[in-house]
Design goal:
There is one protein chain. This protein is α+β, with helices and mostly antiparallel strands and 188 residues long. The protein has 2 domains: 30-106, Ubiquitin-like (UB roll) (Roll), CATH 3.10.20; 115-181, DNA polymerase, domain 1. Helix content is 28%, strand content 14%. It has 6 helices and 5 strands; from the N terminus they run αββαβββαααα. The chain has helices spanning 3-6, 52-59, 115-122, 132-143, 151-158, 169-181, and strands spanning 30-37, 40-47, 78-81, 84-87, 100-102. A hairpin with a 2-residue loop joins strand 3 (78-81) and strand 4 (84-87). Helix 3 (115-122) packs across helix 6 (169-181).
């Protein structure tokens, strides 16, 4: 049975579909935010639907925050907001207003790696390096909680960051070493 015989419109009779929306919603809505990122204050107008990871990378040039899955699964975009590890692909930039953010670029001081970064280097806790900022920021947020977490707690905490290269053993060893040897208080 043909399309004409069944009463259904043929391919040529259907209206042309234009996937590039013809609607004009006007200019994209923006909101002004004032946030502190790596100890520097930033005031920016950001689109209301822009994610933190895109804001950091595209607006501020902080490309150490990597974008992987864009669904909060891989953890590559982990940053610290007000002392808590958050996935930058799941949080909107407009939510940063009045908040403090630390990215992987904010760990080193005066071109010197911090203690956690040095532990990663010592334990060869990276291969391709794509996941490394996520692990560093997750472990840094864990350090803000105080104390010295055991292997199980470290493994549980970093489970939200995926690595396809290292097998996690050197990452866990580096974080254990960092906590065992760190001075009082979190590394800032």
């Amino acid at each position: 049975m043909t399309a004409a015989a069944s009463g259904a419109p043929s391919v040529d009779d259907r209206p042309e579909r234009n996937d590039s929306s013809e609607r004009d919603d006007g200019p994209e809505q923006t909101v002004r935010i004032c946030t502190v990122i790596n100890d520097a204050e930033h005031t920016e107008d950001v689109p209301v639907r822009m994610h933190v990871a895109d804001f950091l990378r595209q607006r501020l040039g902080l490309t150490g925050t990597h974008v992987g899955c864009e669904q909060g699964v891989c953890g590559m975009c982990t940053v610290i907001v007000d002392g808590e590890a958050v996935k930058g692909c799941l949080m909107l930039a407009c939510q940063l207003d009045g908040r403090s953010v630390r990215t992987v670029e904010g760990l080193a001081h005066d071109d010197q790696l911090d203690d956690l970064q040095n532990a990663f280097s010592t334990h060869h806790a990276l291969q391709c390096g794509f996941c490394t900022p996520g692990f560093l920021m997750t472990a840094t947020a864990l350090s803000y909680q105080g104390g010295c977490p055991d292997r199980h707690a470290i493994t549980e905490e970093i489970s939200g960051v995926l690595c396809r290269c290292t097998g996690y053993a050197p990452i866990v060893a580096a974080i254990e070493d960092y906590f065992a040897n760190r001075k009082d208080g979190p590394s800032e």
